Amino acid sequence: xxxxxxxxxxxxxxxxxxxxxxxxxxxxxxxxxxxxxxxxxxxxxxxxxxxxxxxxxxxxxxxxxxxxxxxxxxxxxxxxxxxxxxxxxxxxxxxxxxxxxxxxxxxxxxxxxxxxxxxxxxxxxxxxxxxxxxxxxxxxxxxxxxxxxxxxxxxxxxxxxxxxxxxxxxxxxxxxxxxxxxxxxxxxxxxxxxxxxxxxxxxxxxxxxxxxxxxxxxxxxxxxxxxxxxxxxxxxxxxxxxxxxxxxxxxxxxxxxx
Amino acid sequence: xxxxxxxxxxxxxxxxxxxxxxxxxxxxxxxxxxxxxxxxxxxxxxxxxxxxxxxxxxxxxxxxxxxxxxxxxxxxxxxxxxxxxxxxxxxxxxxxxxxxxxxxxxxxxxxxxxxxxxxxxxxxxxxxxxxxxxxxxxxxxxxxxxxxxxxxxxxxxxxxxxxxxxxxxxxxxxxxxxxxxxxxxxxxxxxxxxxxxxxxxxxxxxxxxxxxxxxxxxxxxxxxxxxxxxxxxxxxxxxxxxxxxxxxxxxxxxxxxxxxxxxxxxxxxxxxxxxxxxxxx
Lengths: 258, 281
Prior knowledge:
Number of strands of chain B: 0
CATH architecture of the largest domain in chain B: Orthogonal Bundle
CATH class of the largest domain in chain A: Alpha Beta
Radius of gyration of chain A: 18 Å
Order of helices and strands of chain B: HHHHHHHHHHH
GO molecular function, one term (chain A): ATP binding
Oligomer: heterodimer
Largest sheet of chain A: 6 strands, mixed
Distance between the termini of chain B: 37 Å
Helix content of chain B: over 70%
CATH superfamily of the largest domain in chain B: MetI-like
Number of domains of chain B: 2
Protein name (chain A): ABC transporter ATP-binding protein
Keywords (chain A): ATP-binding, Nucleotide-binding, Transport
Order of helices and strands of chain A: EEEHEEEHHHEHEHEEH
Strand content of chain A: 25-35%
Shape of chain B: flat
Family (chain A): Belongs to the ABC transporter superfamily.
Helix content of chain A: 25-40%
Number of helices of chain B: 11
Radius of gyration of chain B: 26 Å
CATH class of the largest domain in chain B: Mainly Alpha
Organism (chain A): Chelativorans intermedius
CATH superfamily of the largest domain in chain A: P-loop containing nucleotide triphosphate hydrolases
């Protein structure tokens, strides 16, 4: 099947929400294209519409203006080739780790075969949770719960992975560990990743490109390609080039805030 | 910091330590399952018995526990079973009908804001009507037999179930609903696989309240018109001035409610252990 070169394309995207106090302009004039298998981080102040952007790609929202395209087709409803990782793991508290991982399939089709469970176990092993299949979410740490969240998002083998500040609820150390873990998974099996974050370091460490958004109404004010060799790892954080990128982005965000 | 300062600090911390250990021991003793409530209960019974004897309270005002015990002998065991079964049957029938009706209603209320606005006021009006006052009217309208009694029991148990279940169905984390929508799953599965399980803690707290209300409903119905049942027995006994008998009936009702309450609690612990609040440490 011929693929459009762009996995995701925003053209003139604007989003307004009706609220009790009036119309809230979340996004205005967002322009961006994301190539297939690119890892793109979206960075911006809180409330700049980063999550709205993600929900537009997921087909959970329809843009007020402009259009969002995925593989050349306008997004009008949720697609099968997109997986979502939320800020909170939001696992089902009554289901064990394996059942949580196969949940998308059970929820969509109503049936789960033995081979699906095998795939789920393989995914769990990949995110470092081999041996935890029978545990309940309440028995896991926050980081481990989010690993299940990632395995759940990968179950349907999506082409695009949408991640909405997936590590922001974790402590700093676990957060860094999870970031590197995600890189490892992504490098082994490339996918288009749209990674929402408000951590500058995380964005630079993980992404091929960082899109910086303005405060509300959000639009892309900088499109920065991160030219740091892969594979990246713990030592990447210490490189001077990484500090340069971080410094540049920080001054950009702080200048706008001032 | 001087030496004396240090020693003073350490002695006060030692005192702290002792106090802390004592408190912990006491707390442990009180936490031994059932010990504290059982002790309180026995003390209350003893004070009651002693007060009745010392102040020579007339038995028709307040019979001593020992006299109440005598009240159980006033009718044969088979008659007791008859009465209890009559009350239990109405209470359980009303309870089950109430559950079967309230769950779909809760789903409708949770799904549609329009329906919610339309139906909710009616529910509040029904709930605001004193069941004791409606009971005679219902009995006249529906005649004698179990039907009017079951209806009365339903009226009293329905509201907490609907309100609590609706709240539970709405308490699902929005991310899971988004996940469901992103999978384009059928709405029915969103309800059965996400919303209902999430509502389980809410449903069970309503089930516990409603099961004791069901007993009240059955008794109220028996007060109005019945020839059997523990409520009927109490009314019959008081009209005969057999107060200790009435008290015995009361004890039976309390036990019945407690047992039903416990059964619901155990059912939750057995089938839905994850829905219980984390144990406080």
